[in-house]
User: Fold these one by one.
Assistant:
Number 1:
Amino acid sequence: MRGTVWVSTLIMFSLLFGYTTVPAAAPNPMETVKVKIDQVIEVLNDPQYHKPAKRDEQRDKIWEIASPLFDFKEISRRTVGPGWERFSEEQKERFTQVFTQFLGNSYIDKMQGEYHNERIVYLKELVREPQALVRTQLVRENVALPIDYRMKLEDGQWKIYDILVENGVSIVQNYRVQFQSILQKESPGQLIERLEQKLKNRQQS
């Protein structure tokens, strides 16, 4: 009898706590994007942030939500392209930090200035691990603007490493053209200084 009770207790224990040993499945790429974008839109629509005095607080909230969705190290490497090998390890880290802040400022400015209750339509995802493409549309009145997200599976999490906007224009490619032009004439250190100066100018404006 005691043996039966003991076995039953073990079974109940395993049913209650055994799930902790089973890793949870990672969200698929589309779900990963949708959750974060929906949260950002909620912040953009929140009336408490519509006062000018709350603008910086809204920025911080948007950044807190959106930044984990991006692989900024991969984005930085891809925007520099082959010239990345010219960067020292310290310069790679410094460039990634500065460019991350630069991108964050650029796109949060754009969201705060241009968002007017548009809808996001999630069309489909194309997955070929470790990469994926999530196709969406930004619907503004009767106009649908395509926005596609290139993603990479990293440590069990899907992260964005590029965004394609109208006519398939790649944001990474757009910056790569600019940076490669600069690196033909200047050093990696000078490119970083350019970005740092842009950040300072923005803070002073």
Number 2:
Amino acid sequence: MDITENDLQVLALFSDGYDREYYIREVCTHLPLSHGTAQTVLVRLEEKRVLASSQHGKIRLFQIKPGEISIQYFVLAEIYKKIQCMEEHPSLSEVMDRVSSFTRGTTLLFGSYAKAMETEASDLDVFVAGTYDEQEVAKIGEMYDVEINVKAYPETAFDQKYRSDPLVREVKKNHIVWKNAELFVRAVMT
């Protein structure tokens, strides 16, 4: 398998909402990639059947191509995003690992940390598509002196029924999957 960090960065960009189309220059404005590098990555991902493109005048638009290979590549992208967060915020990683041990279903970090806009006063916004132990999570918050806000939805939170829900849409756009990345990717891509 031939996958680079540039590939993962591009895939992570497409994972913000899983529904956007990007043209080459737009990818360059969001990521620290040259035009040539962005084009090479996008074309390579299209050749691998992860992305599809369409021509609109002189502009070539890329979007996610549905399929099992895309799902697996986006699982890698979600893991990449989690690893980046863990490296940048080791103490947050420790808290989230403890929190996720008391969740059942898919667990995501959203809000300021997922948007890379956190401050020292930021709380942890956690989305659980499933259930969680409220008392244990509260204990973890006290232990680490951090406010942990958990929003719990049914395990089917990313199915068609909830697609118009404002919180689900926000989480789908800006998230870091902490637990069950494949379940999340399969739900948002189908």
Number 3:
Amino acid sequence: MRGPIVVLALLVTPFVATIASAQDTQPSNPGDKKCAVRERGNSPDTLSRTDPAAQGNKQCAPVTVGHTTISGVAFFDVDRDGMLGVDEVGLSSWQVQLIGPVSTLTTMTDGNGAYSFPNLDAGTYTVCVVPPPGWDQISPTNSTAGGTACGTGGFGYSITVRAVATDTTIASVNFGYVSQ
């Protein structure tokens, strides 16, 4: 009885060793195909139908997904040109809304009129300002000038944030206003 078991063990050992090395959690090289993210399908260079990186292979570097920050200034547009100039000042304590794919966020402008929405994931967002009574919007002014209608009665910016590998900032999303 021991003879057949020994022969069977000798026959099975190369297959078990191959399977064990295929499941090795120590990649010999960081660019090893076991950790590469691949499209699923019947590609001839596919090692298997499942993606080891998505299956929790702990030695594979995780896919880095960056976030985006949208920032700008609400300012007193003295010369009414729609652009923040050196002689123009920020408007503090104004509410800014970010309407996104999942929710609406709000923030207040700081003492310099600046605002920021950090850590945004991919998606399309609309940035709008809620001005206090007595102010007229100069920029953006309408949809032909790049503005998007806001529920606040004015116009804002529609911004598409793409999935990126590093953190990114979309700056100068500015709003110009004049007092009535």
